[in-house]
């Protein structure tokens, strides 16, 4: 079945460091890919998405490119801030109505 | 615009007591509705989803049940809570091929 694998956390970085959170997937069709973010004590918010191969999703300085050849959708940011500390979830969605989730990666940014 | 309301935000209940968490969506019709649970330090677990009034699918056998009495209302219930029911519960909605939107979550502590 379809699945999403994320790098395990927590990931701890200093402010202004470069961030990469790896996400790879397996799917039988042509899924849409998402990154959601969960700030402490809150629900999930959509961060960015890509609906087809080679699309790049971007938002709030975060980017991720849909790479079909490597089945990846890695999340990147050039310079992280303390306010980026959160749990990040990678997810895919096939043509049905369900999301397949990664386990989440906790990001801790130290000033 | 569409909004999703979930309440209460926090809840402390004794073992063996009943549970009712409510989720309502505004600004859309016939959404797909979901209940997720997020245990401490873990990813998201899909508990129930619904594609229409009275239509409930359960993903994981458990002590919980769900109902959809109206198009935009989704209720998570239990007759007798267990300690293992503690967690962060998230309601979400989506339309076909559109990203999910999450409520702000309910933190349930069973004591």
Measured by DSSP, the beta-strand proportion of chain B falls in over 45%
- Mean pLDDT over the residues of chain A: 92
Strand content of chain A: over 45%
Which oligomerization state do the chains in this entry correspond to?
A: heterodimer
Head-to-tail CA distance between termini of chain A: 41 Å
Major sheet description of chain A: 6 strands, mixed
* Helicity of chain A, as a percent range: under 10%
Give the biggest beta sheet of chain B: 7 strands, mixed
Low-confidence stretches of chain A: none
Shape of chain A: globular
Could you explain how this protein is built, in words?
The complex is a heterodimer of chains A (111) and B (111). With 111 residues, chain A is an all-beta fold. Helices cover 0% and strands 51% of the residues of chain A. In chain A, strands 2, 5, 6, 10, 11 and 12 form a six-stranded mixed beta sheet that branches. In chain A, strands 3-9-8-7 form a four-stranded antiparallel beta sheet, with no helix packed on it. Chain A has a two-stranded antiparallel ribbon with strand order 1-4. Chain A is globular and about 40 Å long. In chain B, 0% of the residues lie in helices and 58% in strands. Chain B has strands spanning 3-7, 10-13, 19-26, 32-38, 44-52, 55-58, 65-70, 73-78, 87-94, 101-102, 106-110. The chains are: A mainly beta (111), B mainly beta (111). The interface between A and B is medium-sized, with 20 and 21 residues.
